[in-house]
Design goal:
elongated, single chain, 2 domains, Trypsin Inhibitor V, Chain A, ten-stranded mixed sheet, 506 residues, alpha/beta, 27% helix, Purple Acid Phosphatase, chain A, domain 2, six-stranded mixed sheet, 13 helices
Length: 506
Amino acid sequence: MLKGSKEVMMKKLKSIKWRNVILFLFVMVGLLVLAQSFVLPDMIGWNVDRVKHYEAGNDITIVYQNVYSDTVPYGTVANQEKCNKNEDCDVVLIFSKGEDVSSQSESEIKAYLNQLVEEQLINPKEIVYNEPQYSNDVNQGYPISYDANPYEGIIEITFSQGPEIHVYNATMVAVGDILLHDTVYNDFRLEEDTFDFSPLLENVKPYIEPADFGFANQETNIGGVEVGLSSYPNFNSPYEIARDLINVGFNMFARANNHTLDKGESGVLAAEKNWEMFEGIITAGSTDSKEKRDQISVIEKNGIKLALLAYSYGFNGYRVPDDKSYLANEFDYEQAAIDIEKAKSVSDVIVVSMHWGVEYSNTPSEAQIEQAQWLADQGVHVIIGSHPHVLQPMDRLIGKDGNETVVAYSLGNFISGQVGLERLVGGIMKIDIKKTTIGDGVKIEIGQPQFMPTYNYAEASTKGYRLVPLIDSAQAEYFESIKALMETYSPNVDVVDYITYGELEK
């Protein structure tokens, strides 16, 4: 009995022992699994809400990172960085932000986000569209900022308006030679060797003054009475002619021509001193130092910077000293190329005055045509010719880079004491300049020129000089001949009775 009872008891104890062992092992395995879930959670594929819940219920620091994934749905755990079991560390969870939409258009990104809303992956109220901003690097309609944080449930998008665009407009007028013979300046002499040329200019002032830029070829040095006034063949003029030209709207003057050295270095220095009296103007082609010669003359109006360069074919046999080339600019391809490149770096528009051609010829020479095309190939915008003392045609050239260049081969005499109908007819050329900035890029457009012929006459043989529109003179019938001449090479010039000011004409 006892023996049997003992055996039964041993069997029961043995059974309990194995149950305890099994239970112990089960508990240990459960604890290990639980510990593993606390320290190394496996959340791949979990959505944002589950991750939030897990974090809230466990004392584990979780580091969240967001990456784009084309294969893992938006807002799910795409990957996780495991910790070393023997070290305390953060659990790094990497969430999917869905597709990278940084290069998508506005319509594409909105379609993608609508898809996520339909799939209940995001709440439409959590999509924030910020005000569009200008961007010079991103096309219009593309996001310049895309901040998607699925853990917070907020998507912020700032779209691009494309490069910032600004438009600037200005007008420029240009005339030919200011050739002051003694018959002209004596007609406007006042007491004590002072002069007033305003009556000469009053009839053309309305067509010059409204312009932003006004160019004239001051062919005679303005050394003034101190140097001694003189006429052909060695000119020196009263400084008041410059003053009165400025008063009607001119602010750009070429000083390189065949008469620049008529009074030698002293004449140039005297003229330079007189030019320095006037503010708000630029001159080019002759100066009193190398430093000034090497500095590009630039004037700015309405947000448009205009550079002026001036050259002459020669100086009536006078030689420029080798160490004083700044006294008068003689045209040289190499030097002109250097000057033009400098001008490009400091201006938007480049105007070149060229004293060239054959006197009293209505047709440009081969040299003029060759040099004009070369200047166009360098990127010059406007070429204004002088020296023939009569009108020559206008043209619009195409440079090697596809750029357009307006050239007036000769604008003739604006003011002179010369005789003969062709030498008494000049004119005012007006062009509209449009500058468009697109981001960091700049586009320059030169509108179709207007040309108003003018007539310079004396009421008597050498008295009463006045400038008037040709149409208002006794030579009005000459208008159609001038129109035909100016349109010889190109119809892209409007020969008009009177210059008008308005919108940019193309």
